[in-house]
Amino acid sequence: MLIRLATPQDEPAIAALCAAAFFNEHLFGVTIHPHRHAYPADKQIFWRQWLREDLSTPCARVIVSTTLENGQEIITGMATWQRQGSDPYAQAVKNEWINPGAFPPLESTHNRAMDPTRASILQDSEPYFKHFWNATTNGVPRLENWYLHLCCIHPSHQKRGYGQQLVSWGLERARNEGVHASVMASDGADAFYLRYGFDECVGNCCQGEGNPLGVAGVRGGDVLFMWAKTESKGTTETDLALS
Q1: For the N-acetyltransferase domain, which residue ranges apply (predicted)?
Q2: Are 167 and 149 in contact (CB under 8 A)?
Q3: Against a cut of 0.85, is the pTM above it?
Q4: What would the 3-class secondary structure string for 70-82 be?
Q5: Measured distance CA(217)–CA(215) in Å, rounded
Q6: CATH fold label, 2-99+114-229
């Protein structure tokens, strides 16, 4: 098992992996792509655009898990971790970013599997859940964190430890830098994240009157944190709202 940084050349394979892994997931599958059964290949358009944005974001690191099959490298899973905040560690991540350059045009951007009215549902819902990061816990602002933006394993390679390794990649960096880690979990994924290093759920991204995620009936969306550890033992957690 190998965990490595993704390259632009990996984009088609990662997009195919995400399309398979999230085919029936409630947000990316059922809600955003209600016509996926009629146009299953079109889901890859969404994921190729998503990945191009992640690979072009200085604070983001797209990583993949791989294995060898018949001497060929197979990408079994992927994760995007974003280093949020403005502290020196966050700035160093941005400074170390390598610009992938221009991507070739996609063969098509017409995604027939998607409901176009829900293409930006996550961005539209952000005002309802961004407050979960606008606090300070254990003396460290929650905005200083490694955020697990996306994580999935191909259905053919699940339950083999790849997910744990992809999650550990970001959690180890958060621990080394003394900052938090966070994730917005898919439906049913809370137990996995709590088992492998996250500490607690602080709320849900689908709640709030008028929240597009809630209006659409999206399942999942719990926000989980791994808290930064303070040097002094027995420190009591305090949450102070930022003005």
Answers
A1: 65-231
A2: no
A3: yes
A4: CCEEEEEEEEEEE
A5: 5
A6: Aminopeptidase (3.40.630)
- Burial group, residue 130, by CB count within 10 angstroms (0-12, 13-18, 19+): exposed
pLDDT band at 236 (very low <50, low <70, confident <90, very high): very low
Contact 137, 46 (CB under 8 A): no
DSSP H helices in the chain: 11-21, 43-55, 88-96, 121-129, 162-177, 190-195, 212-215
CB atoms near residue 46 (< 10 Å)? 22
Q: Are 131 and 236 in contact (CB under 8 A)?
A: no
206-231: per-residue pLDDT in tens? 999 999 999 999 999 999 999 998 65
Beta-bridge mates of residue 137: 140, 239
- State how far the Cα of 225 lies from the Cα of 179, in Å rounded to an integer: 11
End-to-end CA distance of the chain: 45
The string of pLDDT tens digits covering residues 62-91 is 999 999 999 999 999 999 999 999 999 999
What does the block give as tokens for 95? 């400074």
To the nearest 10 degrees (0 to 180), the angle between helices 11-21 and 43-55 is 130
The ranges assigned to domains in the chain are: 2-99+114-229
Distance, in Å, from the CA atom of 171 to the CA atom of 164, rounded to the nearest integer, reads 10
